[in-house]
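SAMPLE LOG
Freezer: B-3
Tube label: C17
Construct: single chain, 154 aa
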Amino acid sequence: MISARVEPHPQLTNLSTVVITLQVEDMLKGKASKTLTFRQFIWDIRDQKDTAQYMKGQELLLFLRPDSQYGLTSPIGLEQGRFHITRDRSDNVLAVNGGGNLGLFAGTEQRARAKHARLSTKVAVIVHQPSPGPMPLADLKQTVQEWQLSLDIT
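STRUCTURE (predicted):
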């Protein structure tokens, strides 16, 4: 993360927003650019003090909604679509969302069957993980990319 700052919305001046600028390392969907800036509505007044917990230097994987007509966006499901990237003692790169990844892939297999899509053996194992918690970032990315391909999402 490059920066995060709280400021009023440019047109809707009574709305508090946080403007986040990220250095982009990888894109799972959409067109890649070196940086991304987006504006998010601040739902909780406490988030004005800590820029909605966006902090310079942190690594994130975000699943963002399209911009609204007012130029606002946020991660899908708020904390469910914002993954903090960390490293464990063995330097494995892990991802965990604000919900601790609880229910992250709930219903995925049923949705795949309904769409007549097949999940690879590795992704099927990931989807069936019984306990929440941090997961390898590479596994999360592979699961999302495979899901997109299997449904022909562009």
